[in-house]
Amino acid sequence: MQSGKTVTTGLVLRETETKETDKILTVLTPDLGKITLIARGARRRNSPLAAACQLLTYSELTVYQRGAWRYVSEGSTIELFDGVRQDFELLSLASYFAELTESVAGEEQPAAEVLALLLNALFALGELRKDPELVKPVFELRLMALAGFEPLSDGCAVCGKTEPERPMLDVVQGIVHCAGCKQPGGLSLPLTKGSLAALRHALYADPKRLYSFRVEPSALRELNHAAEGFVAAQLERSFRTLDYYKTIKTTR
Ligand SMILES: [Zn+2]
Fold first, then answer.
1. I want to staple 141 with a disulfide (CB 3.0 to 4.6 A). Which of 185, 202, 221, 233 is the partner?
2. What pLDDT band is residue 1 in, cutting at 50, 70 and 90?
3. What are the start-end ranges of the H helices in 175-216?
4. What's the CA gap between 218 and 162, in Å, rounded?
5. Quick one: 3 exposed, middle or buried, by C-beta within 10 A (0-12, 13-18, 19+)?
6. pLDDT tens digits for range 70-97
């Protein structure tokens, strides 16, 4: 027997091709968090599900449960993010955002804030044409904070100074400290006044203004280095999509 249908919105984080013409999708939804959906026939030419079942497409999805699985019966695209999709570099960065999101999103746990963060990041890249090297660390840090890995950055975690002297981010312990206050056992990456201000902005700014700030290119490089180091240390893994993005990105 088939249980009732529900309608949700969702962004496709991963698509896996399976037998014949089906796809298995990992979708981020506001209310159910990360869910797995089977899209029957989605790879068939002229399938009404084809558009809604592509990686990084945001759609309204009609979903039903049968046995242990959820299936998509209808999909209506809301946003295809063409600006991202048509630019190879942006698409590869967005694929990393999707993989990183998938790694921290819980199954069946509401994820409205994480979904909004990711949608806004894709919009900032594809429509607002924000600098990918600015969007990337801000997205990484804000996502980590939403997932429960927020670094303590309001002052030096050791001496308490609001503006640490020669600030550093200890990516293992998740704290900011002065270079002179370094404790054994961590892994500290250098920041400056500018990159620390940007890190705080990434963590605390109003979501609507997340990508609206300017910072020196050197501070942005530090912020990227620190954010990447923080993700790797906290999640204890690497990301294939990030490695790929780094091999193709335009050198700035
Ligand atoms: Zn200190």
1. 202
2. very low
3. 193-204
4. 22
5. exposed
6. 999 999 999 999 999 999 999 999 999 9
* Cα 190 to ligand 1 centroid, rounded to whole Å: 14
Query: 156: CA distance to ligand 1 center in Å?
Result: 5
Query: What is the rounded distance in angstroms from the CA atom of residue 112 to the CA atom of residue 110?
Result: 6
What is the 185 CA–ligand 1 centroid distance (Å)?
A: 16
Question: What are the start-end ranges of the H helices in the chain?
Answer: 82-85, 88-104, 112-126, 132-146, 193-204, 217-235, 240-248
Query: pLDDT of 195-230, one tens digit each?
Result: 999 999 999 999 999 999 999 999 999 999 999 999
Question: How far is the centre of ligand 1, averaged over its atoms, from the C-alpha of 56 (Å)?
Answer: 42
Find the 237 Cα to ligand 1 centroid distance in Å.
Answer: 29
Tens of pLDDT along 108-161?
899 999 999 999 999 999 999 999 999 999 999 999 999 999 999 999 999 999
**Topology adopted by domain 82-248:** de novo design (two linked rop proteins) (1.20.1440)
What's the topology of domain 6-79?
A: OB fold (Dihydrolipoamide Acetyltransferase, E2P) (2.40.50)
**How far does residue 186's CA lie from ligand 1's centre (Å)?**
15
Q: What is the mean pLDDT of residues 1-15?
A: 87
Domain limits, the chain: 6-79, 82-248
Q: Residue 34 in contact with residue 25, Cβ under 8 Å?
A: no
Tell me the C-alpha distance between 124 and 144, whole Å: 19
Q: How far from chain centre, in Å, is Cα 53?
A: 19
Structure confidence by residue, pLDDT tens digits, 180-196:
999 888 999 999 999 99
